[in-house]
Design brief:
heterotrimer, A alpha/beta (about 900), B alpha+beta (about 180), C alpha/beta (about 425), A: about 900 residues, alpha/beta, Ubiquitin-like (UB roll), Alpha-Beta Plaits, Rossmann fold, 7-stranded mixed sheet, 6-stranded mixed sheet, 26 helices, C: about 425 residues, de novo design (two linked rop proteins), 3 domains, 4-stranded parallel sheet, about 10% strand, globular, binds flavin mononucleotide, binds iron/sulfur cluster, binds FE2/S2 (inorganic) cluster
C-alpha cells in the first residue's frame, strides 16, 4: 500500500498517495487549479506557470524533528514568498495550499495576460472556439483587458500543414509543449519539435513525411488552444452544434471507446452526418487516446445512399430475377417481405447444407443469431479470417480483472508473430508502457518491428518458424524436449532465448499476444497451440493478467470465437460444396477471386449476401440484403481483451423513402414509418437473421426485436457471457484522470465515459483446455522453395480495405499496392526500388510449395529491403493482393 | 555522405560520450557539417539523425535553438560584432555602423560578392577589449579585439584576397 | 615552498600566468609544481578528505550563485553511478570574461582542479562545456588534455592507483541560458538548452540523469591551491563568509578595464579607482552593475563605492555580486538606453520554456524600445514597471528573474532619466 499524505487545499482536507502532485490532489476533490502545460498523462514540466498557488508548509523544529505549534496549538505554517506551481509540487504532510487568494488569483491573471500578448483574437474563426481551454480560462481568470499593443503581436501565415492530417496555426500556439511531449514521451515518435527559442519558439516537423504518426490526432485533443487542428474537422462545425453518441471503434481488436460527434447538414440533404470521432475515456482499454485510423477512418459507415462513390450504401433488398440458362439475370430491388421469403425458403431447403460465413466486424448479437440459424438448420458457422486459435483464447485467454495498464515490475509479456504497431496501435502503446513500468517484454518475430525498441528480449526466428520458436522456449524450460527443425536450432541454443524463457516462466503475471505476421490460418492455429502450451506449462493461466491474447484482424473476431464460430482451412472447397451460402459482412470474391473455385461459388449454391455495399461477392449473389452499419444501431463487440462493450446508434439508419401507396412491403415486414412515408431501409444484421430464422421455424428461440434482448438471450446460453447483462455493460465508475466535464483544460477534449466501460468475459471452462495436441509431434515449418519466392503477408495499419478507402484524407498514407523484396533478389531480377513489377501468385495447392503453378498476376510496386532474407517477399494484407498466408510467388520485372 | 566523408571525425566525436548517450554528439556533429558547408541543410540533419538514432526533427530543433547554427547559407565569413551593453559602452555600436557603411551594407546583410555578412551579436566575453568581433567561417571561429574600422577593413581585404586566390571550388580543402 | 603564494595583491593564485610566462605549457606548469596536488590527493587522501578540505576552505561557487562548493560535492548521490563532473565554461553573462582568461592562460590549473574534483566524487569522466564562441580555447584545451594523457596525468590508473579519469570538451552553440546548470546538462544531452525543474538537483540527477557536480571554471581553478595549502590558508583571504580570491571582470566606462584578481571583500572604490584607473574623459560615475547584465543598478554614491564586494555586502545594496562582472556606468549614460540594451539581451536569450520570461522579456523590450527612442509616455514607464513586477517570482529559472533586475532598479533608482526620456516624446 502506498502511504497516504493529508494536506489542506482551500480549506478542504484531502488524503492522497505520497508523490501525488498538488494539482491532481485538488482535482480529486473538485478544486480547479487551472493548467495549460500540465497534463495528467505526462510528466510535469512547469512551463506555463498558470497553476500558481500559495503553498505553506509546517515548520519543523530542527532539534526535535517535531512541528512547531502556534499559540492555539495548531501547527505553525510557513508560506514561501513566491507563488509555486501546483503541477510540479508533490503533496506534503500538513501542507496548506491556497488557490483562491488574491495573490494566487492575480498571479494567474498575470500569466493569462502574458499568454494573450502573443495570442491572436481570432476566436470567432477558430475551430477550438467553444471548447478552448485558453478561452475558458481567460473568461474565468483573465482581466478582460490587455495592456499590450495589438500591432506588436506576432504574425505568421495562419495555417501550415504539418502533414496531411494536422494543421498548425503558429499564432495561436502557447508553447505549452504538450504535443511535442506527447509525441516523444507517450508514443515515442518525436516527429514534431520546437524550433527557435524564446518567443519565436514554434512547432515544426522536419521528418519526412511530416507529422506522420499513427497517434497524431491525439495532439489536437490535448492542445489547449486552436493551434493544432485536424484536416478532417477543420472548418467543419462548431462544437456546440454537435450531438454526441458513444461508440466503439470497429477497426481492430483493441475496441477503443469513441464518441462520435454528429449533426444534420443541408449539404447531405438534411441527413445526420458524423463530423468527427473523438476518444472516450476507458482507462482499461484506450485511456484517453485513439489511433488515427480510428479517428479518421469513419467515413465509410456514413457514406450516404446517394453518394456517387463506389461506396454507395445499399438501401433496399435485391433479388436476382430473369435468370436464364444463358444469362445470369439481374439483381432488382425488392421488398423485405419478398426477399426474406425467398431466402427462408431456400435456406430451409438447404438444411444442413447451409454455410454461414461471417466477418469479424459483426456485433455479438449478429453473430449469436447467425449461430442460432445454423444450429436450427444443422449448418456450419464459419468465421471469415486468416487467423485461427480463437477457441484457445476462450479457454486460456485473459479474464475479468485483467488490464495491461496495471502490469509492471515482475510481469512479462511475450509478443509473437505480431507487428503490434500496425495491427493494434493502442496495444502497442499499452505494452510499451507496461515495459516502461518494468514488465519484461519478450519479442519473437522473423523481422524487426517498432515494438523491439521497448523490449528486454528480441529474438528472431527464420521466416515460417514461429511455432518452433515458441516451442524452443518451452524446451528451454522442460526436461522433455520436442525435436525442432534444424533451422530453429540456432535459436534454441541462443542463451538469450534461455534467459527470456526463464524470465517468462518466473513472471508473476504473463501474457502472450500472438498475431498473424507472415502467417495464415494453418500456421496461426499451430502457433496458438504452442503459446497455450507455454502458458499452461508455466502456470500463467486462469488468473487475471495471464493468458493468451489474439491480435485479431477484426474488431469482433473474439466475439465470434466466444460464440462458437470456427475457421475453414479449405474455404474455397467448403464454399463450393455448400448448398446455400449466407455471407454476412465478408467479401471473399473481392478479396481473392480464387475463392470462387473452379465453378464459382455462385454456380451451384444459393447465395445470400448481407452487407453495407454491393461488394464483388454481392454482385454474384441471388439475394442481397442491406444491413445497417454499426453506427446506425446498437449492439456490442468483444475486444481482444475479451471485454464486451456497447456501442450506440450515432446516426439514424440510411433510408430510401418510398410512399406508402407504392410500397411493395406488406405489413409482415418490419418497416420504419415516418409520417406518411414508408421506409425500405437497411436493418440490423441480427434482425435480418432472426426474421429469416423465424420464417423457417416460427418456434425458434431467436429474437429480432432489439440488441438488448438478443444479448440477454446470449447471456443465458453462452457461458462466457453468463455473468453479464446488456444493462451492466453500460455501467461506469469514476476514472482517473478526470476528463471531459468542465475541465477541458485538464485532460483535453477526449470525452468522459458515460456509455459504459464494458465487462470482461468469464473463461470458458466447459471444454477442457486443449493444450497437449502438439506434444510429441514434430513441428511443421515452412520450407523455402528452391526456386522462386515465398510471399509472406504482413499487416499495415492503413490498408486498402473497404472500410478505410472512403476516408480520402488517408489516401496519401495508404499509398499504392506494393511488395517488399530483398535487395539481392531484386538485383538478380534486375528490379530497382520503386519499380513496378508483375507478381504471379501460385494456385491454391499449397501441398507442394516447390511447385509454382500459374495463378493470378498482380502489378505492384517493389520496395527493397536489406534486412529481409533472400526469397522472402513481404506483401501487405488488404491491398488487393490476394495473399493471406505464406504463398509461393513468381516476380518479374515489368518490361 | 557525411558518414563516409568524416568517418574518423565522427568516431572521435562519438567516443567522447557513453554509447547509450550518443545523442549528446548532436552538437559536435552539427559543427562538423557547418565547417564543411557553412550551414546545415536538411539532408545533413537527416544524416546526423540517422547516425544518432534520433529523428530529423530532433536534430532540427537543436539547429533552431542555438544561435551559432545556421539553416540558411550566409556570407562565407560572418563578421559578428558584439554590440551588447559592455561593448556598447565602449563604442561598439558606432563601430559596427561605420563598418557597415564602409562596406555598403546594413547590419545583418551580406556584401554583394557573397563573402561577408556583418551582424550584431550578444556579449562574447571580451568586454574589456571592445570594439571587437568574431569571424565565423569554415575555418572555425576567431576573435578580433581592440578593433578600429580601419583594422577591420584591412582584415576584410585580406580575407577577400585569400578567398579569391583559393577560389570557391577549393573551399573544402582549406579545412583539411 | 608552495607554488601558490599567500594572497596579497599581485601575487596571483588564479591568474598565475600573469606572473609566470608560458604557463599554458605543461612542462612549465609542472616546473611550478603542477599536478603534484592531484598526485597527493589520489595517492594520499581519501575522496571524502578532499571534500572536507574544500568544505573547510569556505570556497563558494564563482559562477554566480555563491553556493558552498564542498557542500555541493558532498551531496553527490553515492547510490547511483557513474558520477560526472561538468565544468561550466559557458561564460555568457554580459560583462564576464574571467573564465576565458583562466582557460587561455592557466589551463592546467583548471584541468587539475577538475581532476581533483572528479577524484573527490569518484567520477571517471568529466566534461567541459564551453560556449560555442570559445572554439579556439576548446581546441587548445583538447591539446592540453592530450598532453596530460601522454604525460600519464590523465587516463587510466593514475599514479598507480585504480582511479581513472578522462576529460572531454563539449562546445555549446550560442545560448546564454546554457550557463544555467540544468539547461547546460540538457544541452549536453543533445537537447534544447532549456532548464529542468528542480529538484532534483544535479548531484542526484545531472548529466545523462546521473549524479553530477557542475562547477564554474574559476571555482575549479581554486581547488588545487586549496588542497595544497589547506583550508586555513585559504580562509586568510577574503571575508569570513566569502573567503578566497576572486577575479573581478571590470568593464564599461573605466580607464583600465580587464580582469582583476583580488580578495573577496575588496571595495568597489578600490577596484574601480585604484585598479581600473577611474572614469575616463573627466566624467563621473553614475551607476554600477556588479553582476553583469543581470544586476540591479547600484546608485554609485560613496556608501556604495565603499561597500566590500562579497556575497553578503552587495545584497545589502539591493543587488547581487553574481559572477562579479562589474560594469561601470558614467553620467553620460541614459538609464532608459541601458535597460533597452539589457532587455534586448534577455529577450534574445530567453529559452522560451516558461510564459512570464518568454512573453515578458519581449513585452519589456517593446516598451523600452519606445522609451529609449523618445516615443513613450509616463504610462509606458509605469507599465514597464508593472510588467517587470509581473514577471517577478513566477519564472522557471533565474534568467527571467535576472531580466527584471536592471529594469526595476533603473526605474526606481533613476526616475529622473525616465522623466527626461518621456518629456522628449512630448517635445517632438
Ligand atoms: C541564466 C543563468 C546563466 C548562468 N550562466 C553561467 C555561466 O555562464 N557560467 C557559470 O559558471 N555559471 C552560470 N550560471 C550559474 C550556474 O547555473 C551554476 O550555478 C554554476 O555553474 C555552478 O557553479 P559554481 O557553484 O562553481 O558557481 C548561470 C545561471 C543562470 C541562472
Ligand atoms: S525564465 Fe523561463 S523562459 Fe526564461 S530562460 Fe528560464 S525557463 Fe527559459
Ligand atoms: S506550469 Fe503548472 S500547468 Fe503549466
Amino acid at each position: 500500500m502506498t502511504k497516504l499524505v493529508t494536506l489542506t487545499i482551500d480549506g478542504m482536507q484531502v488524503s492522497v498517495p505520497e508523490g501525488t502532485l498538488v494539482v491532481d490532489a485538488a482535482k480529486k476533490i473538485g478544486i480547479e487549479i487551472p493548467v495549460f502545460c500540465y497534463h495528467p498523462k505526462m510528466e510535469p514540466v512547469g512551463m506555463c506557470r498558470m497553476c500558481l498557488v500559495e503553498i505553506g508548509r509546517p515548520v519543523i523544529d530542527r532539534s526535535t524533528g517535531q512541528p512547531v505549534l502556534e499559540d492555539d496549538g495548531s501547527p505553525k505554517i510557513q508560506f514561501s514568498p513566491n507563488l509555486e506551481t501546483a503541477c510540479t509540487t508533490p503533496v506534503g504532510a500538513g501542507m496548506v495550499v491556497l488557490g483562491a487568494t488574491e495573490k494566487a488569483r492575480s498571479g494567474r491573471e498575470d500569466i493569462i495576460e502574458f499568454l494573450l500578448t502573443s495570442h491572436p483574437l481570432d476566436c470567432p474563426i477558430c475551430d477550438k472556439g467553444g471548447e478552448c481551454p485558453l478561452q475558458n480560462l481567460t473568461i474565468k481568470y483573465g482581466s478582460g483587458q490587455s495592456r499590450y499593443l495589438y500591432d506588436e503581436k506576432k504574425h505568421f501565415v495562419k495555417h501550415v500543414s504539418l502533414g496531411e492530417l494536422i494543421f498548425l496555426d503558429r499564432e495561436r500556439c502557447i508553447q505549452c509543449g504538450r504535443c511535442v511531449r506527447f509525441q516523444s514521451e507517450i508514443v515515442d515518435d518525436p516527429v514534431i519539435g520546437f524550433f527557435h527559442r524564446g518567443r519565436a519558439l514554434e512547432i515544426v516537423t522536419y521528418s519526412n513525411p511530416g507529422f506522420d504518426s499513427y497517434f497524431s490526432g491525439n495532439t489536437t485533443d490535448i492542445c489547449p488552444v486552436g493551434a493544432l487542428t485536424t484536416a478532417d474537422f477543420r472548418f467543419g462545425a462548431r462544437p456546440w452544434e454537435l450531438n454526441k453518441a458513444a461508440s466503439i471503434c470497429n477497426h481492430c481488436p483493441v475496441g477503443c471507446n469513441l464518441t462520435m460527434n454528429v449533426r444534420r447538414e443541408a449539404a447531405s440533404g438534411g441527413d445526420w452526418v458524423v463530423k468527427r470521432v473523438m476518444p472516450r475515456q476507458n482507462e482499461s482499454v484506450n485511456e484517453i487516446w485513439v489511433c488515427d485510423k480510428g479517428r479518421f477512418g469513419y467515413h465509410f459507415a456514413a457514406s450516404s445512399s446517394n453518394d456517387q462513390t463506389s461506396f454507395k450504401r445499399l438501401s433496399q433488398p435485391l433479388v436476382r430475377k430473369n435468370a436464364g440458362s444463358d444469362h445470369p439475370g439481374e439483381l432488382v430491388p425488392a421488398s423485405w417481405d419478398e426477399a426474406l421469403s425467398v431466402v427462408s425458403e431456400r435456406f430451409a431447403e438447404a438444411g444442413d447444407g447451409l454455410l454461414a460465413l461471417a466477418g469479424g466486424r459483426l456485433a455479438n448479437e449478429d453473430l449469436f443469431n447467425l449461430k442460432q440459424l445454423t444450429t436450427t438448420l444443422g449448418g456450419e458457422a464459419v468465421l471469415y479470417t486468416h487467423m485461427a486459435g480463437g477457441e484457445l483464447t476462450t479457454q486460456l485467454g485473459i479474464q475479468p480483472g485483467s488490464d495491461i495498464g496495471t502490469m509492471g515490475q515482475g510481469d512479462a509479456i511475450l509478443v509473437v508473430a505480431c507487428d503490434l504497431m500496425e495491427e493494434a496501435p493502442i496495444w502497442w502503446l499499452r505494452v510499451k508502457q507496461a515495459a516502461e513500468r518494468g514488465s519484461q517484454l519478450i519479442i519473437l518475430n522473423s523481422r524487426s518491428t517498432k515494438l523491439d525498441q521497448a523490449a528486454a528480449f528480441v529474438l528472431r526466428y527464420p521466416f515460417g518458424a514461429e511455432t518452433s520458436a515458441v516451442l524452443a522456449m518451452l524446451n528451454a524450460l522442460s526436461e522433455k524436449r520436442l525435436r525442432l527443425p534444424e533451422a530453429v536450432q540456432v535459436l534454441e541454443r541462443d542463451p538469450t532465448l534461455q534467459a527470456a524463457a526463464e524470465v517468462f516462466s518466473g513472471a508473476n503475471n504473463a501474457l502472450i499476444m500472438y498475431g498473424s505476421d507472415c502467417i495464415g490460418l494453418t500456421e496461426s492455429q499451430a502457433l496458438a497451440q504452442a503459446c497455450a502450451n507455454l502458458l499452461d506449462a508455466t502456470g500463467h493461466v486462469g488468473r487475471p493478467n495471464n493468458g493468451l491474447l489474439g491480435v485479431w484482424p477484426r474488431a469482433n473476431d473474439q466475439g465470434a470465437w466466444e460464440l462458437g464460430f470456427q475457421t475453414q482451412t479449405k474455404l474455397e472447397d467448403a464454399l463450393g460444396a455448400a448448398a446455400a451460402l449466407y455471407i454476412v459482412a465478408a467479401d471473399p470474391a473481392g478479396d481473392d477471386p480464387t475463392y470462387l473455385g473452379q465453378s464459382g461459388f455462385g454456380g451451384k449454391a444459393f447465395v445470400v449476401v448481407q452487407d453495407l455495399y454491393l461488394t464483388q461477392t454481392a454482385r454474384l449473389a441471388d439475394v442481397v440484403l442491406p444491413a445497417q452499419s454499426w453506427i446506425e444501431r446498437d449492439g456490442s463487440f468483444t475486444s481482444g481483451e475479451r471485454r464486451a462493450q456497447r456501442f450506440y446508434p450515432v446516426i439514424p439508419p440510411r433510408t430510401a423513402p418510398v410512399s406508402r401507396a407504392e410500397s411493395p412491403s406488406t405489413n409482415k415486414a418490419p418497416l420504419l414509418i415516418a409520417g406518411d412515408e414508408v421506409m425500405e431501409s437497411p436493418l440490423p444484421d441480427f434482425a435480418i437473421t432472426a426474421m429469416i430464422t423465424l420464417r423457417i421455424d416460427s418456434e425458434a428461440r431467436i429474437t429480432a426485436s432489439s440488441a438488448a434482448r438478443v444479448f440477454n438471450q446470449m447471456a443465458e446460453t453462452v457461458p462466457a457471457f453468463s455473468d453479464q447483462t446488456y444493462l451492466e455493460l453500460a455501467q461506469v465508475h469514476e476514472q482517473w484522470p478526470i476528463v471531459g466535464r468542465d475541465d477541458l483544460y485538464y485532460g483535453g477534449t477526449s470525452y468522459e465515459n458515460t456509455g459504459g466501460l464494458g465487462m470482461q468475459l468469464a473463461l470458458n471452462t466447459s471444454d477442457t483446455p486443449s493444450t497437449t495436441r502438439l506434444a510429441g509431434t514434430t513441428v511443421e515449418f515452412i520450407r523455402m522453395p528452391k526456386l522462386g519466392q515465398i510471399a509472406f503477408p504482413i499487416a499495415r495499419l492503413y490498408d486498402r480495405g473497404k472500410t478505410l478507402m472512403p476516408s480520402q484524407l488517408l489516401h496519401e498514407r495508404i499509398g499504392e499496392p506494393y511488395i517488399v523484396l530483398n535487395v539481392n533478389d531484386a538485383e538478380m531480377l534486375r528490379i530497382q526500388d520503386g519499380d513496378v513489377v508483375h507478381m504471379t501468385v501460385a494456385n491454391r495447392e499449397p501441398d507442394s510449395p516447390d511447385r509454382v503453378t500459374t495463378g493470378q498476376t498482380v502489378v505492384v510496386q517493389a520496395r527493397l529491403d536489406q534486412e529481409l532474407p533472400e526469397r522472402v517477399v513481404l506483401v501487405p494484407r488488404s491491398f488487393g493482393i490476394p495473399i493471406d498466408k505464406p504463398t509461393p510467388v513468381e516476380i518479374r520485372r515489368t518490361e | 555522405m557525411l558518414a563516409e566523408k568524416y568517418t574518423t571525425e565522427i568516431q572521435t566525436i562519438l567516443a567522447k560520450y557513453p554509447p547509450e548517450e550518443r545523442r549528446a554528439a548532436v552538437m559536435p556533429l552539427l559543427y562538423l557539417v557547418q565547417r564543411d558547408q557553412l550551414y546545415v541543410d536538411r539532408h545533413s540533419m537527416s544524416e546526423i539523425a540517422e547516425i544518432l538514432g534520433i529523428s530529423t526533427t530532433e536534430v532540427a530543433s537543436v539547429v533552431g535553438f542555438y544561435s551559432l547554427y545556421y539553416d540558411q547559407p550566409g556570407g562565407k565569413y560572418r563578421i559578428q560584432v558584439c554590440t551588447d551593453l559592455p561593448c556598447a559602452l565602449r563604442g561598439a555600436e558606432q563601430f559596427m555602423e561605420q563598418l557597415c557603411q564602409r562596406l555598403g551594407i546594413k547590419p545583418g546583410e551580406t556584401t554583394s560578392d557573397g563573402l561577408f555578412t556583418v551582424e550584431p551579436v550578444m556579449c562574447l566575453a571580451s568586454c574589456d577589449k571592445a570594439p571587437m568581433f568574431q569571424v565565423q567561417s569554415g575555418g572555425g571561429l576567431a576573435y578580433y579585439e581592440d578593433q578600429t574600422v580601419e583594422n577591420a577593413l584591412a582584415l576584410i581585404e585580406q580575407l577577400r584576397t585569400e578567398a579569391a586566390s583559393k577560389g570557391s571550388a577549393k573551399r573544402k580543402d582549406e579545412y583539411e | 615552498m608552495s607554488k601558490y603564494p599567500a594572497g596579497e595583491n599581485n601575487s596571483y593564485i588564479l591568474l598565475r600566468q600573469r606572473a609566470i610566462p608560458d604557463l599554458d605549457n605543461l612542462d612549465i606548469y609542472r616546473q611550478h609544481g603542477g599536478f603534484t596536488v592531484l598526485e597527493k590527493a589520489i595517492t594520499s587522501m581519501k575522496p571524502d578528505e578532499v571534500i572536507e578540505v574544500v568544505k573547510g576552505s569556505g570556497l563558494r561557487g564563482r559562477g554566480g550563485a555563491g553556493f558552498p562548493t564542498g557542500l555541493k560535492w558532498s551531496f553527490i548521490d553515492k547510490d547511483n553511478w557513474p558520477h560526472y563532473v561538468v565544468a561550466n565554461a559557458d561564460e555568457s553573462e554580459p560583462g564576464t570574461f574571467k573564465d576565458r582568461e583562466i582557460m587561455e592562460g592557466n589551463p592546467y590549473q583548471f584541468l587539475e582542479g577538475i581532476a581533483i574534483c572528479a577524484y573527490a566524487i569518484q567520477s571517471s569522466a568529466a566534461y567541459i562545456y564551453l560556449r560555442g564562441e570559445f572554439w579556439q580555447i576548446s581546441a587548445n584545451l583538447d591539446r592540453h588534455i592530450e598532453a596530460l594523457g601522454v604525460a600519464g596525468l590523465l587516463g587510466d590508473n593514475l599514479f598507480g592507483s585504480d582511479y581513472s579519469l578522462h576529460i572531454y570538451t563539449h562546445l555549446g552553440a550560442g545560448a546564454y541560458i546554457c550557463g544555467e546548470e540544468t539547461a547546460l546538462l540538457e544541452s549536453m544531452g543533445g537537447k534544447l538548452g532549456q532548464p529542468r525543474l528542480r529538484p532534483p538537483f544535479p548531484p542526484s540527477f545531472g548529466l545523462f540523469g546521473k549524479p553530477t557536480v557542475v562547477n564554474n571554471v574559476e571555482t575549479l581553478t581554486n581547488v588545487p591551491p586549496i588542497v595544497e595549502r589547506g583550508a586555513e590558508w585559504y580562509r586568510t583571504m577574503g571575508t569570513e563568509k566569502s573567503s578566497g580570491p576572486k577575479i573581478f571582470s571590470l568593464s564599461g566606462r573605466v580607464s583600465r578595464p580587464g580582469n582583476y584578481e583580488l580578495p573577496l571583500g575588496t571595495t568597489f572604490r578600490e577596484l574601480i579607482y585604484e585598479h581600473g584607473g577611474g572614469i575616463p574623459n573627466g566624467r563621473s560615475i553614475k551607476a554600477i552593475m556588479a553582476a553583469g547584465a543581470s544586476s540591479a543598478l547600484i546608485v554609485a554614491n560613496d556608501e556604495a563605492l565603499d561597500t566590500p564586494m562579497d556575497y553578503e555586502s552587495v545584497p545589502a545594496l539591493g543587488a547581487q555580486l553574481g559572477s562579479a562582472s562589474v560594469i561601470v556606468i558614467d553620467d553620460s549614460i541614459s538609464i532608459p538606453w541601458l535597460i533597452n540594451k539589457t532587455t534586448h539581451f534577455f529577450k534574445h536569450e530567453s529559452c522560451g520554456k516558461c510564459t512570464p520570461c518568454r512573453e515578458g522579456t519581449y513585452w519589456m523590450m517593446h516598451l523600452t524600445d519606445r522609451i529609449a527612442n523618445a516615443n513613450a509616455t509616463q504610462e509606458d514607464v509605469a507599465l514597464l514597471h508593472a510588467v517587470a513586477s509581473q514577471i517577478r517570482g513566477k519564472c522557471l529559472c533565474a534568467l527571467g528573474e535576472f531580466s527584471i533586475e536592471p529594469v526595476l532598479s533603473g526605474i526606481e533608482r533613476f526616475k529622473a532619466d525616465f522623466d527626461t526620456a518621456v518629456s522628449e516624446t512630448n517635445n517632438n
